[in-house]
Design goal:
CATH topology: Transcription Regulator spoIIAA
Number of strands: 5
Structural class: alpha/beta
Number of domains: 1
Largest sheet: 5 strands, mixed
Order of helices and strands: EEHEHEHEH
Distance between the termini: 30 Å
Radius of gyration: 12 Å
Strand order of the largest sheet: 1-2-3-4-5
Number of helices: 4
Shape: globular
CATH class: Alpha Beta
Helix content: 40-55%
Length: 110
């Protein structure tokens, strides 16, 4: 897994490439814990995320809960159909705001 971090006027962007699974979720979790120390609005770009395990979904949920607790926002974009199916099967897809592109997600930040 590879993570790229950038910022624009709307949010802090974390682009995930590869698999978020039991071998990589701790790296993702530690990265997100660092991000959450300073950021209030986060966009997770999942365009190049090829797989997510239940451990990865738990990190997504932790990020969502933490941002909500400080009146922040989490948006997801670019989730592939096969990966989106994992969110749906696990029953968490309705908890997230999921957009097709970064631009679409940007326009929905308050």
């Amino acid at each position: 897994m590879k993570i790229e971090e950038t910022r624009n006027e709307h949010a802090y962007i974390v682009k995930i490439t590869g698999k978020v699974d039991t071998a990589s979720y701790r790296y993702f979790e530690n990265t997100m814990l660092d991000v959450l120390e300073t950021e209030k609005n986060v966009l997770l770009d999942c365009t190049d995320m090829t797989y997510i395990s239940s451990a990865g979904i738990r990190v997504f949920l932790m990020v969502l809960k933490t941002l909500q607790s400080k009146n922040g926002q989490l948006k997801l974009c670019g989730i592939r159909n096969d990966t989106k199916e994992i969110f749906e099967i696990s029953g968490v897809s309705k908890l997230f705001e999921i957009y097709t592109t970064q631009l679409e997600a940007y326009t929905n930040f308050d």
